[in-house]
Amino acid sequence: MSTTEQRVAVVTGAARGIGAATAVRLAAEGRAVAVIDLDEAACKDTVAQITAAGGKAIAVGCDVADEAQVEAAVTRIAAELGAPTILVNNAGVLRDNLLFKMSATDWDTVMNVHLRGAFLMSRACQAHMVDAGFGRIVNLSSSSALGNRGQVNYAAAKAGMQGFTKTLAKELGKFGITANSVAPGFIVTEMTKSTAERVGMGFEDFQAAAATQIPVQRVGRPEDIANAIAFFTGDAAGFVSGQVMYVAGGPLN
Ligand SMILES: NC(=O)c1ccc[n+]([C@@H]2O[C@H](COP(=O)([O-])OP(=O)(O)OC[C@H]3O[C@@H](n4cnc5c(N)ncnc54)[C@H](O)[C@@H]3O)[C@@H](O)[C@H]2O)c1
């Protein structure tokens, strides 16, 4: 890569929440960013925020669990922005329920978006990274990977993301590619808002209750996670690989 060439970052689930904050942050670091989400039109706010700040971004509609859509999306990104050498597997969904009430469909949906999605996106982008002799992959795990009542599907998927990450690190290291995982605690997004609704609490009360359990006594913001992702995706982090960083306002048991 010449010194003037921009690295291309792909962020999935970037229409809102942690993904949107990450896309904006990586653009501020000088990356050209492909903003992926299910609905291309829903990505336009994130793209507009980046371009208004002088950055470069495109919106890409893609279901990360769909093999053909992923292949088409990565081909399009490579053609329009250049070879994607930074990938943030952030797209996610919740389908919470206690084990005895959980449907097989809800199990499959969570596995497909998180694990199959990260697998398909990583496989599609790694060819470009190998060619470039450089790559950065960051996979979103969660504090729920340690076990969380009502989330047997999500906890398994997020623990799976950690094993997936460590294996990518071992397989791809020799090509100049690192893989790391960021495991957020409570972050204020539509996802945690939906959890508050499910348990019948107002979102403000839900956040206040969560904050009392967090050593730094506040809940997290999407930017807290974007900061950690920016570190892992930076050129300077080339000797950090296969790690899981919990970003949760304190240690977890
Ligand atoms: N918010 C938290 O407290 C928290 C904590 C730990 C981990 N996480 C993880 O961080 C990531 C982002 O979470 P968030 O809180 O910003 O969630 P969010 O629900 O606000 O955003 C998730 C985005 O992913 C998109 N998405 C869902 N399925 C998709 C698919 N198949 N293909 C493409 N895009 C898809 C959604 O449309 C949405 O825009 C997720 O992986 C989540 O599991 C969040």
Automatic annotation (TrEMBL):
Pfam families: adh_short_C2. InterPro entries: KR_dom (IPR057326), NAD(P)-bd_dom_sf (IPR036291), Sc_DH/Rdtase_CS (IPR020904), SDR (IPR050259), SDR_fam (IPR002347). Gene3D superfamilies: NAD(P)-binding Rossmann-like Domain. Residues 7-185 form the Ketoreductase domain. Belongs to the short-chain dehydrogenases/reductases (SDR) family. PANTHER family: 3-OXOACYL-(ACYL-CARRIER-PROTEIN) REDUCTASE (PTHR42879), 3-OXOACYL-[ACYL-CARRIER-PROTEIN] REDUCTASE FABG (PTHR42879:SF2). This is 3-oxoacyl-ACP reductase FabG. The gene is fabG.
